[in-house]
Amino acid sequence: MSPRKTKELGFPSYCLGDLSYVDVQEYLKHSDTILIPKASLEQHGPHLPLYCDCITATEVATRAGEEAGILYTPTLWLGYSPQHMRSPGWGAGTITLRADTYLNVLYDIGRSLIHHGFKRLIFVNGHGSNVKVVDPVLRRLRYETGALIVYYKPYAERYIGMLKDVLEGPVQETPGWHAGELETSQVLAHNAELVRLDRAKTDKAHAPRWLGPAWAKNDGMPDAEFQGYQYFNFPFDHEEFTDSGVMGVPERGTAEKGEIAFQRFSKHLVDAVEELEKIEVTIKNQDWTEGKAWLP
C-alpha cells in the first residue's frame, strides 16, 4: 500500500465534521475520495445496543480514515428497518425511515459532497436491509454526475468472507447474523460496557409459523425454502422468524474476534481505496446550487 499524501496533512481528525472548510479545501488538493458510514438504529436482541449496526460502520470507516488519511463523514444512524418495529407499544426502540425518505437523504448527501469537489463516494454500510432499497439512488448519483459511487458492506451474514478463520460457530449456527457471534464480538471490541451477556439468548431463525410446515428458514435473508429451494421472497417482519431478535450464539462473542474483524475490514477498505483512486472520473452537473435544487 503506497503512502498517501493526505496523511501528511496532519489533520487532528479525518472526520469531515471535525474540520473547517480550509481543511476540506486542502484535502481536495490531494484526494477526491470520501467515506460515508451509515447503518440503522434498531433492536438487536436483549443484550446488544440499538446502535449496533452503526458501531460496525463507524469503526470500519473511522479506522480506515484515520490510518490512511481518508476523509469520512459522521455516521448516518437512520436507515431502512421497518421489519424491526414490532407491535405498537412493544417498545423496540427502532427508528426507521420510509424508503423514499431514505433515498432522498442519501441523494442529498451525495449531491452535496459532489458539489464540493468529491468525485469518489464510498458508502460504508453496516445494516443489511439498507441494501434492499438503495440501488435507485446509487444509480441516480452516478448517472446524473458521473461520480464513482461505491457501496461497501463490512459484515458477514450468508457470506462469511474474510472471517472464516475467526468465527467459531458453524455456518448452520449463523455466526455472522443478527446479534450473534460476530455482532456481539464487535460491540465488545467497541465498548464492552454496552453488552449485557447476562441477557444473551441463543436463538436461530425459523420459518414464520403462519406459513405452515412445508416451509423452512435458516437465516435472516428475506426468503424461505420450499421443497429445499430458496426461490420465494417475502416481506417478513423480524419477529416472525426469530422470537428473541437473535440469530446465532452470542456467548461465542469475544472482544478479540471483534477487533480482528474491524482490523480486517478497515484494511480491506484502505486497499480498495488505493485501487479506486486509479480510476479516471469525470464529473458533470457538479453545481447543486443552480436553480436551488433542494427547494420544494
Give an overview of the whole structure.
The chain is α/β, with parallel strands linked by helices and 296 residues long. It has a domain of 167 residues: Rossmann fold, CATH 3.40.50.10310. It is built from six helices and seven strands. Strands 2-1-3-4 form a four-stranded parallel sheet, with helices on both faces. A three-stranded antiparallel sheet has the order 5-6-7, with no helix packed on it. Helix 2 packs across helix 6 and helix 5 crosses helix 6. It is globular. The model has no long low-confidence stretch (mean pLDDT 96).
Topology, pairings included?
Elements lengths: L20 H8 L4 E6 L13 H17 L2 E2 L26 H18 L3 E6 L5 H15 L2 E5 L28 H11 L23 E2 L6 E4 L2 E5 L21 H22 L20
Parallel strand pairs: 1-2, 1-3, 3-4
Antiparallel strand pairs: 5-6, 6-7
Précis, in short:
It contains 6 helices and 7 strands.
What tags apply to this protein structure?
single chain, 296 residues, alpha/beta, Rossmann fold, 4-stranded parallel sheet, 3-stranded antiparallel sheet, 31% helix, globular
Shape: globular
Tell me the name of the CATH homologous superfamily of the domain at 5-156 and 262-276. Creatininase
Number of DSSP-assigned strands: 7
Low-pLDDT runs: none
What is the CATH top level name of the domain at 5-156 and 262-276? Alpha Beta
| Rg over C-alpha atoms, rounded to the nearest angstrom | 20 Å
Quaternary structure:
single chain
Termini, distance in Å? 45 Å
Q: Record the strand order, biggest sheet.
A: 2-1-3-4
Number of helices: 6
Order of helices and strands: HEHEHEHEHEEEH
Content-based structural category: alpha/beta
CATH-derived topology of the domain at 5-156 and 262-276: Rossmann fold
User: What's the architecture of the domain at 5-156 and 262-276, going by CATH?
Assistant: 3-Layer(aba) Sandwich
Q: What is the makeup of the main sheet?
A: 4 strands, parallel
* Strand fraction: 5-15%
Report the mean per-residue pLDDT as an integer: 96
